Amino acid sequence: MSGRDDESWSSLGLSPLSRAALDELLQELLDRIGDVVASRERLRALLGAVVAIGGDLELRSVLSRIVEAACALVGARYGALGVIGPDRTLAEFITHGIPPELHAKIGDLPHGRGVLGLLIEDPRPLRMPDITKHPRSYGFPPHHPPMHSFLGTPIRTRDQIFGNLYLAEKQGAAEFTDDDEQIAVALAAAAGVAVDNARLYATANRRGQWLSATAEITNVLLGQVNRTSALTLVARRAREVAAAQLALVLLADEDAGELTVEVCDAADGQPTLAGTVLPVGETAFAAALSGAGHVEFADLGKAAAWPVPVATGPAVVTPLEADDVLHGLLVVAQPAGQAAQPDDLAMLRTFAGQAALALERARAQDEREQLVVLEDRERIARDLHDVVIQRLFATGLHLQTAAQLAVKPEISQRIAGAVDDLDTTIRDIRAAIFELRTPASAALRSEIRDLVAEAAGPLGFRPELRLVGPIDSAVPDNMRPDLAAVIREALSNAARHAQATCVRVTVEVGEGQLSVHIIDDGVGTDGDQARGGLVNLRERAARYGGAFRVSRAEPTGTDISWSAPI
């Protein structure tokens, strides 16, 4: 101090020693004022950070803002937020301060087993001057930036630990201070509220999407229901709202013990499985079919022997039940490494119920339509029997009477021929009446016509077809595949070997027997040298106690005869 200052202190009666102590007190007061100002600024920054992270409701954005705000508040160069998964490891890791290109070089995210795992095991604030010297330190992977000072604190949402906030490399100091820890703990408390709000918002938004999809499907079910279209809509909306990779609707056939993939809705790049038939005994779906309710699989690809590789993550299987009738299964598979949301399980039950309702509605519509058709067919059959046949029969009687009065023999022959034609017509009408009174689904005649029509391409002409008798109603279901095989094989042989210009196919039911005759005008064959497919036809006839014969037709060609009792 100057001499004048000494005089001033002397005039106050202060000694040099007292003056030094007063200087120290003044300096301490200035330091404390500075600390108060700094604390006030940090408090403002903390409040600003709390407002910033609380103003966003998208979870990923909230987590990123928390890490950025924490680094800014405590002066950390690097920060991260690790989300704890169900298996008590880090399911997600959001970082700050590491450039994207360096992040890519580092590779896989940490699992939380080293020092980071300390906060998972014991969720209390943790501060270290040098993380590398801790006994639990495993070191850093290649390309990872060096880190020494460390500060970590858990983030709680209500009574659960959501994740941990990790901060490293205090800037401008060797380690983090107690004030830094308190700031981080305060921010973590506010972050827990922000995370909880974001999760509630996401849940509400997802439920809204589920309800919107449910309303859309309900509107479809209120109108005319097309089974495949309704199930396709159910599968598509279930996959979209659940953010899934694959959604399947499998229909169960209890008699055959099989599951058929009726609908497959897959993300881009995923294989389509529609039409796949799976034996129930060779899959892991039996538990869901037995009434166990929801069944979860870690990997859908291992749940069954799929015809193509199925690479997905966990899957949820829900039975399709309506009025205590099990129709099949709804399967929703997540991408690898992603689990289904708990709230999605309840909504999947609703979707499964809607899919079952669509099946019930479609079945009821088909039955109503079939009933209308059957009633119309019954009316036509009754009119044919009561009106048309009686008139034809009466006409035949009149013609027979007229034949007796005819003078010329040729006139009698012509009348007799007309009477025979009327008898044939009456038999054909009666056969038609039999067909009209059979279920509309039993369209064996149509199947035979389709087989004959398909042979027109290989043959170069359309074969002649004659159907006699109540084929649809009389031929049992177990014999129909063999009948189709006989016709297909005989026509295939004619196309490959006969060099024919005409083929006649006759299928007849009468006197308790089903008969098939296929005659061509080709080069002919020796029945004793029958082999290959013709041998199979003989075995098919023997299975039912029937007969099979191959002979030469007159004047040329082959005559194939196949018969079986019914």
Automatic annotation (TrEMBL):
Keywords, in A-Z order: Kinase, Transferase, Two-component regulatory system
Matching InterPro entries: GAF, GAF-like_dom_sf, HATPase_C_sf, HATPase_dom, Sensor_HK_TwoCompSys, Sig_transdc_His_kin_sub3_dim/P
Keyword Signal: no
A matching Pfam family: GAF_2
GAF domain span: 58-205, 226-369
GO molecular function: kinase activity
Protein name as catalogued: Histidine kinase response regulator
Lineage, highest ranks first: Bacteria, Bacillati, Actinomycetota, Actinomycetes, Micromonosporales
